[in-house]
Design a protein that fits this description.
By secondary structure, the protein is α/β, with parallel strands linked by helices. It is built from 15 helices and 14 strands. It folds into two domains: 2-178 and 364-388, Rossmann fold (3-Layer(aba) Sandwich); 181-360, 3-Layer(aba) Sandwich (Rossmann fold), CATH 3.40.50. The chain has helices spanning 10-13, 16-30, 48-57, 132-140, 149-160, 189-198, 216-230, 245-258, 275-280, 296-303, 317-320, 332-344, 346-360, 365-381, 386-391; strands spanning 2-6, 37-42, 65-71, 74-81, 99-102, 114-119, 143-146, 172-174, 206-209, 239-243, 264-268, 282-287, 308-310, 324-325. The protein has an eight-stranded mixed β-sheet with strand order 3-4-2-1-5-6-7-8, with helices on both faces. Helix 10 (296-303) links the parallel strand 12 and strand 13. The two termini are 25 Å apart.
């Protein structure tokens, strides 16, 4: 069976969808059997760098053969598992795919293969309906993978409010994300030393924040909450946020405009091997959101034993439940109270950290990969039973 994985340029964007794919790919390869092949399709040169790093870091290069061709819209580089020695031109129809899996919308109609789409988040229209581009993507897909039950329910609600879209709900299934084993392990002394050499302004403890560079409303709410909490306690740790190099300029400009300069420390693109040490140095993780998120950083922090304060739409609530502290989304007062609670109660902080670590132990990319292959094989053979697949969650 030949599966095409269409990155849809998400790797170049360093998005949550990119993290999902790069973490999932090694486990997908491990679950391939016999003549199974995974072919990674991507149309932006920037996508090649994270893929090459992944192959080297996960020791997958020996099972990989690059091949590619040139299309009218630019360069295509492809990676095939296991080795394939041929030159491919002109798009999906030449690949002989059984299934083409697009990692994030938009998805375009195609007769080349059965189409699978992964949906990580959605923002309905003001009327609660499906946005038109997403509606077209869902219509073009044979199967739609949601990364949590909460997201699936949100999509179902939007479908019900969108005229002539009722049958789209039958395409939805759920595959939760996993956690890389590196986050379950105690960071090596060398990685901790490297972390503080790389970012000399960093001092423990701190409050680690997910990347909110594209969500300015949530970022400003969080900074206002921190200021409120800081006025009530002698020493509140600073907020540290990881961002891309491009986004750091926009964030600094926002802080200057809003009068929050100096209240946020920015870390630009920390290396993957430093992330476990970065999590372990934090008192807790902050992940506010005003739209649905599936929550990979929250799961990673939990695997490292670090508690998290999250928004009400965080997808990781399904896996972590009461291990998470969930204040009201848009309330600086509620978030300030939660920060103070974590600061003033080390016992609660440790307790939530232990509970999160125990719950995250059951969340693996191996399980996610096995479910993907079950979906692929079911689509090809016509034997897939979505109700049974959902019941196995």
């Amino acid at each position: 069976m030949r599966i095409g994985l269409d990155t849809n340029s998400v790797l170049a964007q360093r998005s949550g969808a990119a993290t999902y794919f790069l973490e999932l790919l090694p486990s997908l390869l491990a679950h391939a059997v016999g003549r199974d092949e995974l072919i990674v399709l991507h149309g932006e040169e920037d996508d090649a760098t994270p893929l090459a790093f992944l192959l080297r870091n996960e020791k997958l290069s020996e099972r990989t053969a690059p091949f590619g061709g040139r299309r009218s819209n630019g360069l295509w580089r492809l990676l095939s598992f296991p080795a394939v020695e041929r030159f491919v031109n002109d798009g999906e129809q030449q690949f002989g795919l059984d299934v083409c899996h697009t990692l994030a919308p938009p998805l375009m109609p195609s007769r080349a293969a059965t189409r699978v789409l992964t949906l990580h988040q959605m923002q309905p229209t003001r009327g609660g309906r499906l946005p038109a581009p997403l509606r077209r993507s869902l219509a073009a897909a044979n199967r739609v993978i949601c990364t949590s039950n909460r997201l699936k329910q949100q999509v179902q609600t939007a479908i019900a409010k969108t005229p002539r879209c009722e049958r789209l709900a039958d395409k939805l299934t759920v595959v939760p994300p996993g956690v890389h084993p590196r986050f379950r392990e105690t960071p090596k002394a060398a990685s901790i030393e490297t972390l503080f050499q790389r970012f000399p302004f960093l001092e423990e403890p701190y409050l680690l924040c997910t990347d909110l560079s594209a969500n300015q409303g949530a970022l400003l709410m969080l900074l206002e909450a921190w200021a409120r909490a800081q006025s009530q306690v002698a020493e509140l740790p600073p907020i540290v946020m990881c961002v891309t190099a491009d986004a750091s300029f926009e964030v600094m400009d926002l802080l200057r405009r809003e009068g929050f300069e100096g209240r946020l420390l920015l870390i630009e693109e920390p290396e993957v091997e430093l992330l476990p040490a970065l999590y372990r140095g934090a008192n807790c993780l902050l992940s506010p959101s005003q739209q649905f998120e599936y929550g990979i950083p929250v799961l990673e922090a939990a695997a490292a034993g670090i508690p998290a304060i999250v928004g009400e739409e965080c997808g990781a609530l399904e896996e972590l439940g009461s291990a998470l502290l969930v204040p009201e989304n848009d309330s600086p007062e509620a978030w300030a109270h939660s920060m103070l609670r974590m600061q003033e109660s080390p016992e609660e902080r440790r307790g939530r950290g232990r509970e999160g670590r125990d719950r995250a132990a059951a969340v693996t990319w191996e399980k996610a990969a096995a479910r993907h292959w079950k979906i692929y094989r079911g689509l090809v053979t016509g034997e897939i039973d979505l109700a049974q697949l959902q019941a196995q969650l």
